[in-house]
Amino acid sequence: MRLQKPLAGKVEAGFPQSEIGILFQDDALLPWRTARENVALGPIFRGVDKKRALDAADEWLERFGLTGFEDRYPRRLSGGQRKRVAIAQAMALKPKLLLMDEPFASLDAIVRARISQEVVELVEREKISVLLVTHDLEEAIALSDAVYLLSQGPRARVTRRYDVPLPRPRDLVRAKTHPAFPPLLEKLWNDLSREVDLSAGAESVEKARAA
Amino acid sequence: MMSDPRYAWVRQLAALAVLLVVWEAAGHAGYLNPLYMPTPTQIWGALAELFGGGSIWPHMQATFTAALGGLALGIVVGITLGVLAALIRPVAELLEPVMLLLNAIPRVILAPLFVIWFGIGLGSKIALAFILVAVVIFFTVFTGIRQVDKKLVERVVTLGGSRIDLLRQVYLPSVAAWVLGNLKVAVGFAFTGAVVGEFVAASRGLGYLLSFAQSTYNAALMLALVLLIMAVVLVIFALAGRLEKRLLRWS
């Protein structure tokens, strides 16, 4: 995605890079562009006619319930509204794969629950793949079809894969009361704790050596 | 009413009125030597005389031309050098020490030198206003560009933006915001440069009138001129403020 060059090897997605969208933890909207202009940025960069891109942006904003806020600057939007604009911005490029780095971490609980649900519905409807990175185990299980546990960084690697047997379409509140949810959460939690203990142990050994 | 913050201006105005009345009365009672401290009515008289005869206009024009010319030139050159230094390392290595030195000295001491270089005409005043403004704008832009929000850059890059897109969508709006944020400081410096330049050597301008008033021990004229310069700069501050508000309505 042109953010960092790999030290070795290459990343293969099976489709062009232009079909990968990214959603960061911070919404990072351009403060001097309106909601509409922010959503239209990607398509305009890719050569779509400006007027058509802006019209399409209005449609995306409408889908996220932001009709009437098109001409607002990010400063005059709430945290949840900004996050919706950021999602619309990523979706306006019609990605096949959406990369999310703790996208909901900065939101307060209620807004977070609502936006997570909206994203789940969007992803199920548009049939896009999502790679979500999170510290929140419940979020990981409730949103995903498969959870991969990463070892402690630096040089983190996948240590295990867990399939999530929850049915789709998914309701995030109900997902947490599904009988398969608690045992999976417990297992993930135990494995993650062991991982953290392990690396904490390694660290103290290293410190002891250095001393 | 006595402590309502909405009526602060009433209390300020009342205080000013009291001050003026006491000042005027002290003058008439003979407590103030008019040679050093003329009364408000005498200052007002000097001001009226300047405008009444129309003799003030060529001087105002000279000062405005020098200040605004130096301001425009200083902004253009300051932005250009700031952008170049921020984007090209060797340029920064050459420019930064020079600018730091220029920033460290009170730049008005260059006024006599500029008179030798550019004569006692408009040139030396524009040069002084220019050097005062350009250094401030340079540092604004130079440090500003290096502090551009990394997240915005990443966002534009991941959305497929090119280098030109980055410049247009991220760097230029940021630079515009910083320059506008410092516009008032720059305006103040531009007028300082013009007036001090005229003070040192000139045949026209508000600064020239000031030095003339000094050589004839005319305190009333001096205070009238100080008042006039204050008014002028306040008007320009207001204009700059409106421009800032319009262009930075997103913030």
Question: Which keywords apply here?
Answer:
heterodimer, A: alpha/beta, Rossmann fold, two-stranded antiparallel sheet, 12% strand, B: mainly alpha, MetI-like fold, 11 helices, 0% strand
Notes on the protein architecture:
The complex is a heterodimer of chains A (211) and B (251). Chain A has 211 residues and is an alpha/beta fold. Chain A is built from 7 helices and 5 strands; from the N terminus they run E-H-H-H-E-H-E-H-E-E-H-H. Chain A has helices spanning 35-45, 50-63, 79-91, 109-126, 137-143, 172-175, 181-210; strands spanning 20-23, 97-101, 129-133, 146-150, 158-163. A 3-stranded parallel beta sheet of chain A has the order 1-2-3, with helices on one face. In chain A, helix 4 links the parallel strand 2 and strand 3. In chain A, helix 1 (35-45) crosses helix 2 (50-63), helix 1 runs parallel beside helix 3 and helix 3 runs parallel beside helix 4 (109-126). The longest helix of chain A has 30 residues, at 181-210. Chain A starts with 19 loop residues before the first strand and ends with a helix. The mean pLDDT of chain A is 85. Chain B is mainly alpha-helical and 251 residues long. Chain B has a single domain (59-247), classed as MetI-like (MetI-like fold). The chains are: A alpha/beta (211), B mainly alpha (251). At the A-B interface, helix 1 of A face helix 7 and helix 8 of B.
CATH superfamily of chain B: MetI-like
Strand order of the largest sheet of chain A: 1-2-3
Mind describing the biggest β-sheet of chain B? none
Number of domains of chain A: 1
Order of helices and strands of chain A: EHHHEHEHEEHH
How many distinct helices of chain A?
Answer: 7
Q: Please give the largest β-sheet of chain A.
A: 3 strands, parallel
Instruction: Report the C-alpha radius of gyration of chain A, rounded.
Output: 20 Å
Please count the beta strands of chain A (DSSP E, at least 2 residues each): 5
Please write the string of helix (H) and strand (E) elements of chain B.
HHHHHHHHHHH
Mean pLDDT of chain A: 85
Total of domains of chain B: 1
Share of β-strand residues of chain B: under 5%
Rg from Cα of chain B: 23 Å
Report the average pLDDT across residues of chain B: 90
